[in-house]
Amino acid sequence: MAYLRNLNPAQLQAVEHSPNIPLQILAGPGSGKTRVLTARIAHLIFHHRILPQAICAVTFTNKAANEMRARLQVLVGRHETGLIRMGTFHALCASFLRRHGSKLNLETNFTICDADESKKIIKKLLEDHTKFLADKNVSLTEGTAMSLISKVKARGETADDLRARHLRMKARQSDGRKRRRPQPLDDDQDEDGGTNPLLQDVNVLEVVADVYKRYERKLRQSNSLDFDDLLLFGVRLFERHPSVGEWCEHVLVDEFQDTNTIQYELMRRIAAASGCVTIVGDPDQSIYGWRSAEVKNLRNMLRDFPQTQQILLEQNYRSTASILGASMAIVAQDKKRVAKTLLATHPIGRRPMLQLHLNEYEEATFIATEIKHLVAATGGMLAWGDFVVLLRFNALSRLIESALQKEGIPNRILGGHKFFERLEVKDLLAYLQLIDNPHFVPAFSRAINVPARGIGEKTVAEILATAERLKLSPLTVVTRIHDGKLPDIKPSVKRKLATFVPPMQKLRKLARERTPPSALIRRLLHLVEFEAHLKKTQKDWDSRVENVQELINFASEVETSEGIAGGVRPDAGERWDVDEDWDVLPELDLEDERLSLGSDTPLRLFLQASMLSTDVAAENKDDGKGKVTLTTCHAAKGLEWPVVFIPAGMLEDGTFPSHRAEDVDEERRLLYVACTRAQTLLYLTHANSRMFAGETRKKDLSEFVSIALKENQNSFAREAPHLTANLSAGDRALLAKMLGRQAPDEAEVARRLAEQYVVARCPDVQFSDFLHYQAAESTRL
Ligand code: ATP
Ligand code: MG
């Protein structure tokens, strides 16, 4: 079988391991874990005759799912690949809940509420506690409240649990006061209590419990679920209705070290029927502790699946030996970690470069000019798409972006949810969300005034209050006002609704007719005169128009991948009425609105893909090919690039380790993850001083790097004599010529080789191709 070729013995063993014995594949970066997982899926299908639809594969990002899908299409075919239930935990839950949500009394046409929308809701709810918090002298921002709620949710605690916790804490405290001795908060002293002392504050707990409760209510009223809810309800679904998971014969999870408690719980329950699980992971790459990821899930798995066996992979196929050496020198500083072997397959290559700069401007300029230089010097062997700049935070990208632009280097930002956070994209998504779910208040509040219709905040509040009172969606309320079936509001809004209600009616009708989302967006743009609105309100309207186009492209991609290009007709027997006007539906319109769009409409599939997109703008692969990528270390997990730059204070005390980070070990692992993305060239840059919160600060090199530097220099000196082993006679002669001597000594050859043997990952490229490339003088790590 093709997928079994090119695997080393340990990888082969992992792929062929019996499907009935749970398996943990533990190994360092670039050792082929993801490749093995993919091959194992193919093996389950071909050899063990497991149906593709009985396999559940969990990836950490959508990009990873897409890559795995692309590889599997080659291995098992397009149709079979389409049947595998594959995606992030969130995306999988969303689709399970769309299908079975009614078992939990959920409307299956729920809208996914993104973090930005959640934050807005929480901010409003928090306002009711402003005075209380001020009286108690406690500061609690909406961001903190949101992350506290999210953490509590990630552990599966409900608002009522939190309230009960608050009452217990209060009782204990008054008890303690009576006895004049504070009592320990035993069961509250959990991990969260440790890392989040805020939740140990009785006042904060009271406020958070209340905000959490009302936030949940708001979400349900809007018929929406936030990201945490997707997991929470997902677990509940399998817990209460175990039969829902009976289809599943094997669960596979990539990047297992970064699963949190609730995700682990989900995996356990999906696998409950079959007991067949394969996970791959690397504790050294655990970088989501701040999001409640639990490395101890590896041990939990051994407890819950006692048959579990482990296979270790020890060969790295990604990076040159010197990049691997430098990376290992960084991670090895963690004395608590369990050491593991990771051997390089590629030659030593050019050693990672450590560059010191005066300030961040010089640093950014260096990166841009070096990239340009490398592309020119390698005669096109390296293209823009081969470069990535890995940042600690997204916010650090500005300077580098502008330096790249100055040099005319095309670039793109990958990561987070950036593309979908743009104003114009959010505005359009709000329309589409509202078309899909007229109850979704955040979308209504946004769309109603884009383009500006002069409907004030007070009026919007009044519309929302009416909707709540009459148990109607806000969209139905404005439609009725527009049609004169509900009294107008003063000052009159009826007239202003003329540019909102009729377009929405048309668009909803189109959506109900299963119009492909790309066509729906085009129609929307036309009906609300969106381009004119951008021209009128935005200076950079032309680049925003491009983003709109990008959204249409993304929609077309979703249509292709979901098989809805050209629009799919509804399944026979599905209940929906094309002719019936949705807005004149009888009183109980919640129910009718639900039925009116049917389940899994093209629009809904598109919205789901947008909301759950974990990475790049439109995740367009071709897009990345010709552009330098800027992204965060977190978003780069699992990926690889020929050339990696790690700048912007990543290596300075106070930035990396970040002063925000509570866990120095996690910061070190993050740097390790970043370094191990590199295949051929790795640049670490560092500025002597940097602007920080408006003032220039002097920066010292992070100890992660200075310690690694020393260790690595020693080890390089030891290894130098072996480096010439692979040198061809031709290269040796060339090198001799270059050095002006007949027979260069071994050490000299090794040094030159290390500096200039750039493309170790392309064995057919001769060393001589790169002789014209002269490295800038710098420290070699
Ligand atoms: P990470 O921990 O960063 O996610 P990983 O262990 O998942 O890394 P992969 O991404 O699967 O590693 O593989 C790294 C690179 O090595 C890929 O380009 C992959 O195609 C290649 N590779 C893996 N195994 C082999 C092999 N046996 N022969 C040749 N190349 C391999
Ligand atoms: Mg991987």
Automatic annotation (TrEMBL):
EC number: 5.6.2.4
Keywords: ATP-binding, DNA-binding, Helicase, Hydrolase, Isomerase, Nucleotide-binding
Molecular function, one GO term: ATP binding
Reaction equation(s) it catalyzes: Couples ATP hydrolysis with the unwinding of duplex DNA by translocating in the 3'-5' direction; ATP + H2O = ADP + phosphate + H(+)
Enzyme class: isomerase
Composition bias type Basic residues, residue spans: 168-182
The UniProt record lists the keyword Transport: no
Residue positions binding ATP: 27-34
Domain UvrD-like helicase ATP-binding residue range list: 6-320
GO biological process: recombinational repair
Positions of the UvrD-like helicase C-terminal domain: 321-638
Region named Disordered: 168-197
Keyword Plastid: no
GO CC, any one term: nucleus
Recorded family membership: Belongs to the helicase family. UvrD subfamily.
Identification of the protein by name: DNA 3'-5' helicase
Originating species: Fomitopsis schrenkii (Brown rot fungus)
